[in-house]
Amino acid sequence: MNAINVAAKPSGRTAYRVVPDRDDPVIFQIEGTLTRIVEISAQCALTSVTDELKLGRRYPFSLDLPTSRLGISGYVDVLPELDNGDVVCLFVDLAPDELDQIHRYVLARQKQVIRQLRDSA
Q1: For every residue of 10-22, which 3-state class applies, written as one string?
Q2: Which among 16, 25, 18 has a CA at the least distance from the CA of 2?
């Protein structure tokens, strides 16, 4: 699925979410358990519901992006489920360079999706 979603925040800031490429996945682990990312932005990752995740709790995570050699680790807050059953894993206190890595990945993925849409039209 090729999609770019825009989520406006009350602060007026905008987060662009992208669907990771199936052929070049984002590796996301919560408490050492590999978890599938449905969408990702610099603020959060949307993931499928798993029985191990308890809503409202904070978990350690690690993230490996295809566009970066350095992994990202820290904590995510698991927020209530969305209508489709996915949960929001909100990144907590990422360092500026870690945010920049995610921004670069999202931008690269947006460009890739736009090229694919343009080529298929």
Answers
A1: CCCCEEEEECCEC
A2: 18
pLDDT averaged per 10 residues, the chain (length 121): 48 72 92 90 84 87 93 92 81 94 93 90 75
Q: Compute the distance between CA of residue 95 and CA of residue 73 in angstroms, rounded to an integer.
A: 10
> Tell me, what's the pLDDT at 10?
46
CATH number of the domain residue 115 falls in: 2.40.10.220
**What is the value of pTM for the model shown?**
0.81
**30: Cβ contacts below 8 Å, ≥ 6 apart:** 47, 52, 53, 59, 60, 61, 76, 89
Q: Report the number of distinct structural domains present in the chain.
A: 1
Segments forming the whole domain that contains residue 110 = 4-120
